Amino acid sequence: METIRPDDRVLLGAGEEHRHGAAPNRLMVHLAINEGDHDHDVVHWLDPVTDEEYAAAPATR
């Protein structure tokens, strides 16, 4: 789990699995720019984060 703050940028490599979401008491806006081609999907969606996983989020400052 990684804590990100306003204006942080997170770069992920092709094929890197990840999840994102706000802590229970925070708002998050997510903007993604994806590159795909004829051989690769732009997005492969994983399972949603559970309520229990959200509850385990680290405390925010």
Give me the secondary-structure topology.
Layout lengths: L50 H5 L6
Could you describe the 3D structure shown?
This protein has 61 residues and is largely without helices or strands. It has 1 helix and no strands. The chain has one domain. InterPro entries: RmlC-like_jellyroll, RmlC_Cupin_sf.
What count of helical segments does DSSP give? 1
In total, the number of domains comes to 1
Termini separation comes to: 15 Å
Work out the radius of gyration. 14 Å
Number of E strands: 0
Mean pLDDT: 77
**Helix fraction by DSSP (H/I, runs of at least 4):** under 10%
Which structural class do the helices and strands define?
little secondary structure
Estimate the strand proportion. under 5%
Q: What kind of sheet is the major sheet?
A: none
Low-confidence stretches: none
Elements, N to C (H/E): H
- Overall outline: globular
Please tag this protein with its features.
61 residues, little secondary structure, 8% helix
Structure at a glance:
By secondary structure, this protein is mostly loops. It is built from one helix and no strands.
